[in-house]
Each structure stands twice: as structure tokens, then as C-alpha cells.
Amino acid sequence: MCLNFQSFSVPARLAVLIPAHNEAATIDGIVRAAKEHLGGDVVVIDDASTDGTAQIARSAGATVLPLSCNLGAWGATQAGIRYALKANYQQVMTMDADGQHLPEYLPLLLTTLVSGEADVVIGACTERGSRARQLAWGYFRKLTGLGIEDLTSGFRAYNKAAMRVLAAPEATLLDYQDVGVLLLLRYARLRIQEIPVPMRERDHGGSRVFPSWLVVGKYMLQTSLLCLAKVGMNGKRRVAMQR
Description:
The chain is built from nine helices and seven strands. It is α/β, with parallel strands linked by helices.
């Protein structure tokens, strides 16, 4: 895909949120590339790293939010969203710190968001992942009725209405930025759009979301219960939201 955003104007109140836990090997390049390709403010939520992630991110030009205890990927992301609301940012974009998300595609997602076509834009890559992940996606799509192809991508853009939904206490109960988050957004009647993007394998280490099959099993059980609870409401429940 040829990307040309020479005439693209970056909104003044935009923040790129990067949750990071022990990502000293990659965070410098990710922060610098995000600033190069998009501009705006880059905020690294340091999820209680024990390496030099925070110092390196700060040196690369990011604002660093240090967390005193490990909250996990979604908890750190939500902390960043709450910070962004308090600082009056109008849009935020989220991306991983492990090198899977390509910063050159940030403008593509943001262009769709600021055009008003959607409240949430997801950078989707359905080709990635194992057959097991593909089967899990299919299972949860059928269970929830969500018309989303890539349910677990953390490469996203949110407008202020979506930020308010995801900053709510109800969202704090979630562990991941996937099915539960998407259900909250759907019940808030927000528009979600996917944009196909390529992704890379992570540069270093393993997944912090699914480090073992035990964690995968726990995730499948918890998410299934969450989906059944939400689907059982037949859409009657509404998330308190101020647009």
C-alpha cells in the first residue's frame, strides 16, 4: 500500500498511547517513528517495567506515565486514556511497544477517524496469528454478533466519545483491549470501522497477553461468560456516556 499524507493535518490535541512493560529493546525506535510519521504527543505508560523502558522512552521524546504496579496491557492503556481525557486530548491512538504495529500506518487510521466516518478505527490484520487464534475469533464473532474481523488488535484510534466510554469504571473490570472493550463501544452505539494494515512479528520476547495455554484457557472462559452476559441483555443495557 502506498501511503501519501503530505497534505494531512495532524489535530492539535492528539496523543499516541503506548503501554509498555520491559520493552527497552524496542521503545526508542517506536517512539521516534511515531513522532516522525504522525507528530502529536507520544505518551508511554510504563507498566512497572524493571528495565530501562521509562528512561529510554523519555529520552526519545515521550511523556512517560510511570505505574507503581503492573496493570497489564489493558489496564495501562486505560490509564493512558484517563490521562488523555484529563489533559483534554480530543483523540488518542493506541499501539503496542513490541514492534508489531507499523507507525507509518498511524496517519491512515487517524484520517478515517477525523473524517467523522467512525468513532473508533481499528488497524486490522486478520492474516496474523495461529489457526487457534482464527478459530477463537470466529467463535467470539458468532457468540457476540460483532462484525469485527480482528478482535484483538490494539492498533486503534479513538475519538473523545469512545475515550469516555473506555475510561468508565465498568471498563476497568476488563483484562484485555478486545471483545469486552468492543462490546462496551457497541452498547454505547459508537461506530467502529476496520482498516486493513500489515503487522510484523514482535521484535523481542513473547506475548504479554497470552504467555501460556493456562492463560489462554482462562481468557476463553472469562470472555465467554462476559459475552453471554452482554448478549443476554439484548442491547438494552447502555453505558453511561457523555458525548
